[in-house]
Every structure is written in C-alpha cells, then in structure tokens.
TrEMBL record:
Residues 1-238 form the Major facilitator superfamily (MFS) profile domain. It holds the Pfam family MFS_1. SUPFAM superfamilies: MFS general substrate transporter (SSF103473). GO terms for cellular component: plasma membrane. One of its GO terms (biological process) is response to antibiotic. It is a multi-pass membrane protein. The chain crosses the membrane at residues 41-59, 71-93, 100-120, 135-153, 165-183, 203-225. GO terms for molecular function: transmembrane transporter activity. It is found in: Cell membrane. Keywords: Antibiotic resistance, Membrane, Transmembrane, Transmembrane helix. This is Major facilitator superfamily (MFS) profile domain-containing protein. Its main location: membrane.
C-alpha cells in the first residue's frame, strides 16, 4: 500500500503495542501446541501492524538529512534486536522456562504504550488518498508467500506428497496473478515500476542480503552451536 494508507495516528502505535499484551498472555498460558500456534499467528499479525508504522512515524517527525539518519538508526536498532533476541531468549528459557520468552513481552508492551503516549505527537493530517487500497493484491501476496513458506518448512526427510504439489501450484499461481495485477491497478501493493530505478533495486538487494545473513544465518548458527556442538542455550545463542 502507499504510505497514505500506512500512516495511522502515531499514538495508536503505542495502543497497538499494549494490545499485544493479551495475545502475549495467551501464548504464555498455552496448554497445547494448537493453542500456542494460534497465539503466535495473532502475535505475527500484531507485529506486522506495528512494524508497518515504523518508517511513516520516522518520516513524519524528521526531514532532510535528519530523516535519513533516523531511518538508518531505526534499521540498525531493528537488526540489533533481531540478533540479540536469541541470546536473551536462551537465558530466559534456561532460567524460567519457555513461557518466559512470551511473558517478557508484557512489560515491554506496557512500556511502549506509556512511552508512545508521552512522547509521540498526534498525527499530522495525511493527504486524501487518490484511490482504493489494493486488497486483492495484498491477499494474493499473502496466499502466495504463505503457501511457499509452508513448502520451505516441510521436513526434508519426508516424501513429496499430494498436498505439497497443491501448495506449490497455489504459490506459483497466486504470485503470478499478483505480479500481473500490480500493473493493472492504480494503487498497487508493490509498485514494480520502482525496480526500474538502479538505486532502488540496488538498495533492495542489499537489504535482502543483509536480512538473509543476519536473520537466516543467525537461526541456523544457533541450531548448530546448540545441537551440533552441544553448547547450552545461553552460550549457544551468544
């Protein structure tokens, strides 16, 4: 979506962070795997809503060179948090059990709400949108990426089954339809014409590689250190 639709009131970001509290409570009190998975889905939805407001918040508060520095700082802190989270999670699990990984979000959410209510100003009036959101494109993207993720997560030692073929076809068709649709709607979910700009394409490639190395690499490194080398959780996560 264009930024017009992403720019919610800044104070509402703190409210969203606080609203994550009940969801984190559900995950903390989960009694079985289905309960935990349902809570994790809700957590993911809430995190997506909060994260999408990060850049608009920074853009509203800063201009010019200060905006570039602020966006860079925001990205650096986000990456650092992703790298430090496994270490903190390992310490919490060893000390208090797996439920502590979700319980820690309760005071953090309350602090985020209090800080947002105190620091963030009301949102500046956004210009009236010139079109309708691309809901079909968003749904196709979610369907395509979701089914593709299921294929990536399937165990490698299991034989290929009929449902895997269905998931593969669904992902391919949904993503192909998404790409076609993006050239036909006035306000696309992803404006593919931006990739014709070398600077933009280069920046997106750099972001992709950094995310793969920082997030994907750290996950496999933790598994190698803990399961392969037999280190305990805090040492392996470090």
């Amino acid at each position: 979506m264009r930024q017009d639709f992403m720019r919610a009131a800044p104070r509402s970001t703190g409210a969203r962070a606080a609203a994550q509290g009940p969801v984190d409570g559900l995950a903390t009190s989960a009694q079985d795997l289905w309960w935990l998975n349902a809570a994790r889905v809700l957590q993911g939805c809430g995190a997506a809503v909060i994260m999408v407001n990060g850049i608009p918040l920074v853009s509203d508060r800063y201009t010019g060179e200060e905006r570039n520095l602020a966006i860079g700082a925001w990205g650096s802190f986000a990456t650092a948090a992703g790298l430090l989270a496994p270490t903190l999670g390992g310490v919490l699990i060893d000390a208090f059990g797996w439920r502590a990984v979700f319980a820690i979000n309760l005071p953090l959410g309350a602090a985020a709400w209090a800080l947002a209510a105190r620091v963030l100003p009301p949102a500046s009036p956004a210009p009236s949108p010139t079109g309708r959101p691309d809901w079909p494109g968003s749904l196709l993207l979610m369907l395509g990426l979701g089914t593709a993720t299921l294929l990536v997560l399937r165990p490698g030692d299991t034989p290929w089954a009929g449902q895997d073929t269905v998931a593969l076809l669904t992902a391919c068709l949904a993503l192909a339809a998404f790409l076609v649709l993006q050239f036909r709607v006035p306000m696309p979910t992803l404006d593919l014409r931006m990739f014709t700009r070398p600077a933009f394409s280069g920046a997106m490639l750099a972001v992709l590689l950094s995310r793969v190395l920082a997030i994907g690499g750290s996950a496999y490194l933790v598994l190698y250190l803990s399961d392969g080398l037999g280190l305990n959780r805090p040492r392996g996560d470090c």
